[in-house]
Hints:
The protein is an alpha/beta fold. It is about 50% helix and about 10% strand.
Amino acid sequence: MENDPAAGHWGENDGEAVDVDSALNEYEEIRRELSKGSARRPSVSPARRVSIFSTKRPQPDEEEGGVSTNADFIDLEEYLQNTHRERNKVPGVFPKKIGVSFRDLSVLGFAGAGWMLLPTFPQELASIFGWDIVRFAQMMLAPRPPPKAIIQGFSGVVRPGEMLLVLAKPGSGASTFLRALTNQPRAYTKIEGDVGYAGLPFELARGRYRGEILYNDEEDAHLPTLSVAQTLSFALKAKTPKTRIPGTSREQFVEEMLTLFAQMFKMKHVLNTIVGNAFIRGVSGGERKRVSIMEALASRSVINAWDNSTRGLDSSTAVDYIRSLRILTNITYSTTIVTLYQAGEQIYQEFDKVCLIFEGRQIFFGKASEARPYFEGLGFEATPRITTSDFLTTITEPTTQHIRPGMEGKVPVTPEALEAAFRRSKFYTEIQEELEAYDRERRENEESDTRNFKEAVKAEKSRNVAEGSPYVVNFWMQVWYLTQRELQLQLQDVVAMRSKFINVLVLGFITGSLFYNIQKTSEGAFFIGGVLFFNIIIVAWMQIIEGINMVMGRGIVAKQVSFAFYRPSALVLARTIADLPSLAIQSTLFSIILYWMAGLVADAGKFFTNLLFVFITVICLTGFYRAIGSFSKNINVAIRLAFLGLNVIALFAGYMQPYKTMKSWVYKWIYWANPLAYSLEAVMINQFHGMELACSPVHLVPGVPGASIKNQVCTLYGSVPQSATVAGTDYIKGFGYEPSHLWRNFGILLAFTVGYIIIAMIGTEYMDFGAGGGSIKILAKKPKEVVEELPTQEKKQEKTQEKKPADPEKALDIARRISTVKTSGSIFTWTNVNYSVGTGAGEAQLLHNINGYVKPGTLTALMGPSGAGKTTLLDNLGLRKRVGKTSGELLMDGKKLMPDFKRSTAFVEQQDVHDEMSTVREAMRFSALLRQPPNVSKEDKYKFVEEIIKLLELESLADSIIGFPGFGLSVEERKRVTIGVELASAPAELLFLDEPTSGLDANGALSIVRFLRKLADESGIAILCTIHQPSAVLIQEFDDLLLLSRGGKEVYFGPIGKEGGQTVINYFERNGAVPAAGDVNPAEYVLDTIRTSPGARSWAEIWDSSPESVAVMEEIDAIITTRKDQPVSRELRTLEYAMPLSVQIATVTSRVWRHYWRDASYGFSKVFSNLSMGLIGGVLFLNSGETVLEMQSRTFAVFVVLILSPLILTGVQPKFLQFRMLYETRERNSMIYSAPAWITAMAAVEIPYAILGSIFFFLPWYYMIGLPKDSSRAGYAFFLVMLFNIWIPHIAMWIAAVCPDLTIISVVNPFIFVVTNGFTGILVTYYAMPYFYRSWLYWANPLTWFSRGLIADLMHDVTVKCSPSELVHFQPPSGQTCRQYAGAWLSGASGYIVDLDATDSCQYCLFKSGDEYLKTINVQYSHRWRDLGIFCVFTVSNIVLIYVLYWAVREYRWSRLFARLRGKGSSK
């Protein structure tokens, strides 16, 4: 991972290797100088103490020989080394050092500890009907199987200042061992035995001393958009001790420690660069590892366990990393325990002790220098040039054990025998003696270390921190530091911040224009209510992403909480505080636009009161979303519950169904428990109190020409006879609103806000969804026998011996039959390859004139330090790059690359990207089916896959779900699957592999490389492979080496040379490098050599002018000359894809269907959303009657259908992005299938779920409301609802197709929702809509036609009967009946008069049928089939839009077109 180009750095700088001695010397030098300053000026006031590392003014750079004259610096010794050196000067500072001892340590696993069956959609769906209760009862009643040992009988001691290396095969219990020592076991496991921390109780490792005993996962979990300095500053702030040198502020402490760390670990040049991750460019992988080290150092923990932490690092960077750990251990006297899968000799020598694990059994523990002689004494033999760690690891694999000649049958080879031999050895006796000595020393010292440790921890804690708390700073300081960090995250995420404000402005103008200049009349009264409703809910609605963020960020939060940086509840409160400025701006912008465009009361007091309620409502609902997120298991649950909650709040707020018309007390409580109801009442009171509404002519009845106001009445609620105006206060009393409730409601809203925040805080503190836990195997089907998830079962060794190994010859034979490559093979050449990317600071060139070739049957290693551009070069050679500018010539046999190049070239990506719901076997079969040519039978493809599974030792995992880190296969297993998926394609010409051995142990790495060696030899394909940490044995399997230096410059290409890589070593020695030792690993030698230039010229310049470079170019020219005229020797070379589109669609659809079926939560969310909204609508409008208000309720019942779309849409989009990432990251590059294939698959698979969801929605919604029972009309309504459910996921897809990520989608979605749902004629009727929208947008909106058809179907032939409160009374002229006075008018108007012969008072009802109501909203029942047909067209066009927009935005390379056009223009 390269650095941020804007910061001026790409990768790590040359010459920045970590050196233990120099770092310690530099530290000691600085300490002495600073101690002098501290001793000389003990009385300097805090105001005058200026740090020599202060960033306020420039200081000399010590790395460049600068000397600082300012010695006014605190003594850092007490904070790092924790010795007694300055204790007399600083009372209250105690040394903090403890070791870890363990006796007979075992970890037992119960059923479920290793594997579980994946629940499918039908099982999840059954939970709606109570199946969960049945399953829970079955689980409780079923007998519990006995526990089984994962690791057993471990003993040892690691003292302060010591480093322990734990070696084992993946899955043998190394991670379990580390977790046990730090008391962080996985679920379903139990720790037995005695673990002690210098006399401290084991249980306190998870309690008050949690922050002192750390387990560090192999993943570098950091907030990617924070800079290195910000990341470390936060860690330092959270761990700044209360007891410091007098006169040292917290700010000084953090600043000076940060600068010291940066110097020690050579990170000063990247302090202002973002950390980044796999998807966001930041510092390099090696630098990110150092950030993790510094974060642990900042935490000031005393016991650190690091699990496989060098995965993905090149050998030189891995050495730097371990040396950094050595520095940390030496300076702080901490206790360090590390598991490594591949450790070179330089790494091994940094450790004091080593523990070797074989199938969960301890077969050695002792000094690192004595392990090799011990096993050689048992009769094992080390192969030439093998490193000590590799030799030890070979003993734990029966197939790689080497027995010394003459010792066959005498050497213990099984885990049990080796464990017994170890327990008989002097080393086991020494362990027991050391344990006794360690305990005796503690007793003789009167537990001084323990006592000092407790006092030190106590002294560190700031004021108001409980003695039993693991945290250093108190809760409110945690909140303050987290608030600062959250503000940094917001301000640095410019795209998200800008998008939010743009969205607020756009939505404000759209909504404002919809309700533009509402008149304060009876016609405008309802629309004023609509404006106020949208004003309080839209900005709050946009905050729904916060519920999702609560789920997505759990991994990093879990890590930092385990480090005791802060309480999870402090983060909730900090996010709330950090949100206030942004939400205030958003609320103000939206309110200003909407309030004044709608023409609401022009009074400053009313405006600011309105704004206050909008703001507090937004904060309240944001707290509500966070409360939901804190209790949600995953993102599907969070989306489902957040939108369900929002819809309940919105629908029961009293706008769509006033409280008085709600029919049952059973659900009226929802209204009173709804914060939005109080907010809506408050803004309605604020707006209408004191307003006089003029009665519009259409509402003044009867409309008899020349009638006197004395004989007329306004139909608006609250009107009084003989008055042409209605008091606003009287109008809102019809909804039960009282002016005296205004500020009462504000208090209630504050109470809701605080309540939601407290609930969210409780949820984050006590809900544990396994964040940060280990992986378990997920099976797609129940195995025939119990899966051996616990690798230490005694029978496993027997089964391992009985199991037939994979037959490489058989696999290669199948490969030869499938491949159509000729025995002569093809030669791939590249010349003058350059690659550059545009950055904010200009253009950065990452590759410079790279030349080389790979020949048939050869294995070429691509090496270089972190940041050298290895992956970038491999991506360019494999035509994987779609951004940036690439130049140079890539030829196959001297000819331009054919269309089939991508699919006939296997490419093992560095990132293990797979369909997470596929099994191992299914993933490989998918690759074989679509990538092997059609002339190979399906049976042969499947047979080939089975051999690949055996070859990679994946038989026991073949039916396991691949999953994702923490759920499914482990990192190492996923890497093997990645290799298998590519090998299943039977590559015909080239095989590219990007770090195929990353995450594997030495045996696994050697096994993979030897297979590649055999594949190259037997099938004749050319293989180019980047490799990070090759051992001396492993590098000898390669023929050639392409070596890059940092900055993407070639420094060597040619043969490695046999006999220890002598050819490449001779080249560097001949050009000025330090001579190599006799037993040196050539890979480590060349990587160390190219760190620094041998003289005035760089290694790249030396290579360019070398005879070897000239010879390479001559060889390439010869290859091109001799091969360019040879005929194409392979079939189907003009086909981009191996299989036709129909087969692609069928195969991809099958995979997507399985994915949906197994991702039970996704399908359940769709059904649950439909069912819940159907029930909500049915309950809200239960038994809809025949009153005028019920006619309006039926209209809003249709709106309930419309607001189903956000629930479904926001669930579909993450799934679409997931499949899009899979396609674009790996499968498009390999030309496995085309974009239309996976788009068709997703579009098709969504339809059955849409139909099922429609059934669950329609039945409660339609029949609970009491809509027409006629079968034809009910069938019409169901068909329309079903079409709508099909329409939703497809509009979700084309929105996701044009958006780069979820952040932008969350900005676009509200705009789509407002336009499609707001302009249907429901919220603002057709005649009340501004002419601009009424003339085109209304008709162009697909949901207009859906709403028109459904409303017409529900309203037709419905008889309207006004309730007594809806009847308006007017007085006929003296001596006239109602018929005589208003009969003529009534014949042409809607409605009816109860008694036409009455003479004293005429009771008038506004409508007499649903069809009359339809006329007022411009809907006709006779057009309902036309409306349905037009909506069908929109449904089909939605699907077409997915293909068109995806092609236009994500597939077509417009930049190339524009470049060609510019080229033509300039040529003219």
